[in-house]
Amino acid sequence: MDDELVSAAHHEAGHIVIAHALDSRVISLKLFWSDLGRWFGESPVRLGKEDPQGMEFIVRMPQLLTVSAKTALAGMLAQAKYEGIRKYGEGIQFDLDADLNALSEFLRDNSRTEANPGSIEFGFTTKSGDRVTLRLSGHCFSTADSKSFNRSLRQVAGLDPFALTRETMQLIDLEANRINIKALATLVLKQPESGDDKLRSLTAEQILEVLSGKVEQADFEMPNSND
Prior knowledge:
The chain is α+β, with helices and mostly antiparallel strands. The protein has a single domain, classed as Methane Monooxygenase Hydroxylase, Chain G, domain 1, CATH 1.20.58. It has 7 helices and 8 strands; from the N terminus they run αββββαβαββαααβα. A hairpin with a 5-residue loop joins strand 6 (119-125) and strand 7.
């Protein structure tokens, strides 16, 4: 199976799992081949357990936008961790003591384009305690993710991009979330392709079966890379 497709599946699964962990409602998960020549995904969610109205919405807006920012970061970070595991093996964790200045600048850089996406380096610690790095293309943080993240920063006074990033890294590193990200990525990759864009998709019901633990662990085996 295409390594880039598997990586994209982990990206979209990261969005879904962290949104759900932060009490948002999942809608669907889709992977498809873009005419830009690479895999894209969609993982829409509705922030919060319910839709607040009137004054309640105003009061809860900072909280909801914080969730939105973490959800936007989660896809990139889940993809980075998947690629880190491929390179360095199981047991890696994000290096929370690493300098995040370059990453913070990258997240807020509005000059990036499809043709010139830039790149970004992530720090990890291995199971043996070694500090290692991994560099990925800036495509791992899409225009949509960037807009969502930066909208939250603009609208919520005092929202700290460094704290948001570290807190989302910690969520990605949690064992329960790691298992669910792998499970969702595996499940969407097992879905049949349809159409010229090779669409694979999961419904909210299929996603919630995984997140509620109703899918057997044996079903989490990734499709063979030669499929």
